[in-house]
């Protein structure tokens, strides 16, 4: 799946509803491979070009898992409706013209040459004549005159003729739209909708007016109603929904993230993070002599480290999985300017990143990188983490610069090539990614992660190129990796994704079982396996059971809450979906991820409002 605290945005990390991210999904520094790889999907899969055969492992791909082609943009929230799109869509046609024919004749003036006189016409006929004259002015670009005619039509129309009257208001709104009088557009569309609650043209025109007036919530509700009424087949309304959801998500996330309480991830997450590094000094166990003998007191607690060092105490807390004390102990070492100051800065920065406080992490990373007398492994590790942080912040140029600098100062550091290879995959630079993985393997032949990632990179390249022979070669490569490294859970996870792409669901399920055997406390694997049940057997109960198991294992697994929320949207349980999305929001580790989650939540909420106002509900599973 996507990387833990990254890939949260709707544009840089566009959901499965997009053909290809403009900027790739973003990695959390040092994230293990299957989480990163699952965020990088091929163009064909994301567009539904292979029959909806996505892996279901990326959060962006839940629609594919459920057998639905994907939309463009943030419409992950509307993914349930896209099954209807298979029957063909309306495209992106504009809705600028007024309704009714453009008949000659003055506003409310005489009828046709051989028709009845003005005096003989009924009030409705006279209103229609005024509207038709207004249409003529509209098509000639004479919008003020058109408005006068539509106004006359409204005044002439019998009040019981709701549909005709709603058309006149909608036409006048169209003329106001051409004059960019957005308040008047919204007012007239409101009148039209009051008279005809399922009037698509009026709802969509009002949505556009609300967008111009910066009424995002109202815009979203209107465009949601339009999407449902049109069975999600008009790209223009889908794009507006996507746009306003992104804006709403970013606004809310900016405010929420600024005031959020830092939250330490689960121990499993932290251990998984550190296990992705082999040359990270700060994650190594305490050396002999740094800690006194395992002389325990009566309560069974290990005695303190020999030296009065905040850093060494922080390291001991790491071994004890007492992570909440690490930042404070590292700070003591830094303030004392102790001999482990560089290590303490890097350790503190790492935990700032883990709790989602990149602003606090950056000065510490900057300081370590600038310490030319510090251990080069520390500086390279700081560059890797800062580079990953930049990528998470949608700054791929700065990210690449940091990785390249790390390779320059420590060319024998396998971690540099391992993590830069992941970055290259996310940037869709597959050949360069493979080169980096090869270098990592050369430096560290026992690196199971790099070998599995290389296989996945080659597989993605072959899959997106629609070339069967290289796909077969890559699949054989996975078999070789899991045979050579039978204890590498990520190898099985990546192979499972490839197998799912190839519709080999039974074997993919077996690979996930292997992952669970190796890492029974890895909640993410249960989510992946649950999604597979949905795609493979359409077994909602089993899928939700496995995702619930993931939450039981790790109640801080935001991916599980988000996935469950998305499924509940598809089931029509919108209140439950909103509850799940809000839980995921509170666990989000980056502002960008939070923005994405708010977009999902806002979409679900808009659907509840539409259901109340118009009695409209999308199709459910």
TrEMBL record:
TM regions (residue ranges): 60-80
Q: Which residues form a coiled coil?
A: none
The TPR repeat ranges on this chain: 127-160, 380-413, 414-447, 489-522, 558-591
Is Cell membrane tagged as a keyword?
no
Cross-referenced Gene3D superfamilies: Tetratricopeptide repeat domain
Name its GO BP terms in alphabetical order.
protein import into mitochondrial matrix; protein insertion into mitochondrial inner membrane
Main location (coarse class): mitochondrion
Subcellular location(s): the record lists: Mitochondrion outer membrane
Q: May I have one GO cellular component term?
A: mitochondrial outer membrane
Q: What is its membrane topology?
A: Single-pass membrane protein
Disordered: region residues: 88-123
Molecular function (GO) terms for this protein are: mitochondrion targeting sequence binding; protein transmembrane transporter activity
Q: Which UniProt keywords apply?
A: Acetylation, Isopeptide bond, Membrane, Methylation, Mitochondrion, Mitochondrion outer membrane, Phosphoprotein, Repeat, TPR repeat, Transmembrane, Transmembrane helix, Ubl conjugation
Q: Which Pfam families match?
A: TPR_1 (PF00515), TPR_8 (PF13181)
Family membership noted in the UniProt record:
Belongs to the Tom70 family.
PANTHER family noted in UniProt: MITOCHONDRIAL IMPORT RECEPTOR SUBUNIT TOM70 (PTHR46208:SF1)
Name recorded for this polypeptide = Mitochondrial import receptor subunit TOM70
Which lineage ranks, top first, belong to the organism behind this chain?
Eukaryota, Metazoa, Chordata, Craniata, Vertebrata
UniProt gene name: Tomm70
């Amino acid at each position: 799946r996507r990387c833990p605290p990254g890939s949260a945005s709707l544009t840089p990390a566009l959901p499965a509803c997009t053909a290809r991210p403009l900027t790739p999904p973003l990695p959390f520094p040092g994230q293990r491979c299957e989480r990163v790889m699952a965020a990088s999907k091929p163009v064909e899969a994301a567009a539904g070009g292979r029959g909806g055969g996505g892996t279901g492992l990326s959060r962006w791909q839940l629609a594919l898992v459920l057998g639905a082609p994907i939309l463009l943009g943030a419409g992950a929230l509307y993914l349930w409706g896209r099954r209807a799109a298979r029957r063909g869509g309306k495209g992106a046609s504009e809705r600028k013209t007024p309704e009714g024919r453009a008949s000659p004749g003055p506003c409310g003036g005489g009828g046709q040459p051989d028709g009845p006189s003005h005096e003989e016409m009924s009030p409705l006929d006279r209103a229609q004549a005024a509207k038709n004259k207004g249409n003529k002015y509209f098509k000639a670009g004479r919008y003020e005159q058109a408005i006068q005619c539509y106004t006359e039509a409204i005044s002439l129309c019998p009040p019981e003729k709701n549909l005709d009257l709603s058309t006149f208001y909608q036409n006048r709104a169209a003329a106001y739209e051409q004059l960019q009088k957005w308040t008047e557009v919204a007012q007239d569309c409101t009148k039209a909708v009051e008279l005809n609650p399922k009037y698509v043209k009026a709802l969509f025109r009002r949505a556009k007016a609300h967008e111009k007036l910066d009424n995002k919530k109202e815009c979203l509700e209107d465009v949601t109603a339009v999407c449902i009424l049109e069975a999600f087949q008009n790209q223009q309304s889908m794009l507006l929904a996507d746009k306003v959801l992104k804006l709403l998500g970013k606004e809310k996330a900016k405010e929420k993230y600024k005031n959020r309480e830092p939250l330490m991830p689960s121990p499993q997450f932290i251990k998984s993070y550190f296990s992705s590094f082999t040359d990270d000094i700060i994650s190594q166990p305490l050396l002999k002599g740094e800690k006194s003998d395992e002389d325990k007191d009566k309560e069974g607690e290990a005695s303190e480290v020999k030296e009065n060092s905040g850093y060494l105490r922080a390291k001991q807390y790491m071994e004890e999985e007492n992570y909440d004390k690490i930042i404070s102990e590292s700070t003591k070492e830094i303030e004392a300017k102790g001999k482990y100051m560089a290590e303490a800065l890097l350790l503190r920065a790492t935990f700032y990143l883990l709790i989602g406080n990149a602003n606090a992490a950056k000065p510490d990373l900057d300081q370590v990188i600038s310490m030319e007398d510090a251990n080069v492994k520390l500086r390279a590790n700081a560059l890797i983490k800062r580079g990953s942080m930049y990528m998470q912040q949608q700054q791929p140029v700065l990210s690449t610069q940091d990785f390249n600098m790390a390779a320059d100062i420590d060319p024998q550091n396998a971690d540099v090539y391992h993590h830069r290879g992941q970055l290259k995959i996310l940037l869709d630079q597959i050949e360069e990614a493979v080169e980096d993985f090869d270098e990592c393997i050369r430096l560290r032949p026992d690196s199971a992660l790099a070998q599995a990632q290389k296989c996945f990179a080659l597989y993605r390249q072959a899959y997106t190129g629609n070339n069967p022979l290289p796909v077969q070669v890559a699949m054989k490569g996975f078999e070789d990796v899991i045979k050579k490294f039978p204890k590498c859970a990520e190898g099985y996870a990546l192979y499972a994704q490839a197998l799912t792409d190839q519709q080999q669901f039974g074997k993919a399920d077996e690979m996930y079982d292997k992952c669970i055997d190796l890492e029974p406390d890895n909640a993410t694997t249960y989510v992946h396996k649950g999604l597979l049940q949905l795609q493979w057997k359409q077994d909602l109960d089993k899928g939700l059971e496995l995702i619930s198991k993931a939450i039981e294992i790790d109640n801080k697994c935001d991916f599980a809450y988000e996935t469950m929320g998305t499924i509940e949207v598809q089931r029509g349980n919108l209140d439950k979906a909103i509850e799940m999305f809000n839980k995921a929001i509170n666990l989000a580790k980056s502002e960008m991820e939070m923005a994405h989650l708010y977009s999902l939540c806002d979409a679900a909420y808009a659907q509840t409002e539409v259901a109340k106002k118009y009695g409209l509900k999308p199709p459910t599973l």
